[in-house]
Each structure stands twice: as structure tokens, then as C-alpha cells.
Design a protein that fits this description.
Mean pLDDT: 95
Number of strands: 11
Largest sheet: 9 strands, mixed
CATH class of the largest domain: Alpha Beta
Structural class: alpha/beta
CATH architecture of the largest domain: Alpha-Beta Complex
CATH superfamily of the largest domain: Spore Coat Polysaccharide Biosynthesis Protein SpsA, Chain A
Number of domains: 2
Shape: globular
Strand content: 15-25%
Number of helices: 10
Helix content: 25-40%
Amino acid sequence: MTADVVVVTWRSGERVLRCLQSLAGQHPAERTFVVDNASHDGTVEGVRERFPGVRVLELGENSGFGAGANAGAAAGDGEAIVLVNDDVQVHDGFMQAILAPLCADPRCGMVAGMTMIPGTQRVDAFGIELDVTLAAYNRLRHRPAAERPGRLAMPSGGLAAYRRTAFERAGGFDERLFAYGEDVDLGLRMRLDGWTAAEAPAARGIHEGGAAIGVGSPRQRELFGFARGFLLARYGVLRGRAAPRALIFETLVVGWALARHRTLVPLRSRRSGYRCARGERLRPPRDAIDATIGWRTALSRLRAR
């Protein structure tokens, strides 16, 4: 199976160079594309100097992760599209491992790799699991890789492989989502189109995490809130049986932000995201949802977040 690797970056400097160094020599990548979201800080020059074989696509403005990934995918023609965050350094054998499920099963449309927390033996993410409200959780987050993970809904866009035909039939990432939630939305649409998701535990990388936007920053809260509101509207969560639970948890998030950070950004951004997707009528596939994630588990994960 031929594959194109797409790395979306913004003002990453040495970070993306470390990522590309880890990708160098990985087989069977046909091409590697770096999509630069108008960094204007020397990132592009650094990539071209150190990795002349990498194709660089310069966007005129910062269009977000989804739009950047779409641009990189459109520039290639490999049978698979492999996404690697610019703050991830992959291990040897990564490419072969993440493509294996696509080769083995023609129904498989997407594959989740495993990212690790730097300096530890703990997992950062091994794909995404969803509860009944479509709240997304990183599988095995902060746990050893050998533990049994929850139900895989879809891969995280930070380390994933997509079958090109499946990706293109679904329309790629929805570019209304600047960052966060775009991988959940794409995975749900691909499942609705009949594709399955698989995991590749040997396809690993070290993930710095939050390097571009900043963990806990106001911008991160804004983007996350918009994505959350968008998903709640597009998939009709507040019109279904999970509505009371979703409303309680969203109220807790907004209330915490107001009490702790004196900000209504999570409320305003959720409202904006909801309005953006209001009127759309997609029903989330049942096999994507892990109904065993109950109230207590969801509350515990919310507190940790």
C-alpha cells in the first residue's frame, strides 16, 4: 500500500524538524508533505534546508488543522493518508505498523496509532473513545500501554492513517472546525459511510502535547468549546436520551470556567459551535459509542481534564 504522510505545522521551528527526522527512512512512505499554516517565522526555511525531499505547502493564512490536513491529502495520491502531529516523534517501524490494518481488511477505513507521554511509560492517547454524549476521551490516557483499552471509536488526528477512498468519500475534515473535534466528526461520518476503525499498538510515537496552542490557554478553551457545541448540534445529542447528562456536564464545565478563571469563553464558544451546525441531522452510529462509560467514570475524567 502506498502512503502519503501529512504533517500540519504552525510556528513549530525545531519541533517539526524533530518530527521529520523521526519519519526519515520510514517505509513505505511515498511522499511527505509539510503543510505550513502561515508561520512566517523561519519554519518553512528550516524544513527546506534540512529535508529537501519533503514537499512544503505554504498556506496564505492559518486555516487550522483540518484545512491543513485536507490540503496535504489533496496534494498526494497515495492509497493511504498518514497524519502525524508536528510535535510527535515516531518510533522505528511506525509506517508499516499503522498501514497493516488497512492492508489486512478492505472494510477498515481508519487506524489509530499510540502516542506516549515524554519520559514515561504511560500512554498519551491510543485513539478516541466516546460516551453517550459524544464526549471524547483519549484511550488509555496516563495508563500503561499493556492495559486493556476501551472501545475504539476513531483515531486521534495526531497519529492516524486513513484509507484515501474512505477519507475522500466522507469529504475529509470539516474545515469549520479549526482545531479539536475534527477527528471525532470525520470518524463518525466515515462510520456512517460503512467503514470500520482499527488500532495499531506497534505504531507509536512520543507526543509533546499542546505545543502549538498551549494546554489550558484561553485559545484552547475557545476552540474546544466551539467543537463541543458543533458536535452536540450536528449529531443531535441534545435531542436524544443523553440530553440531560450532556446538559449537566456542560453546565459543570462552564460553571468551573466562570468560578476558577472568571471567563465565559466556554459558554460563548459552545453557543457559536452549536449555531454553526444547528439544523444538521446526523445520527451517530451505535458501534462508535461505549455505553459502559457511566456517570461516575465521566465525572472522574472531567475532573482530571
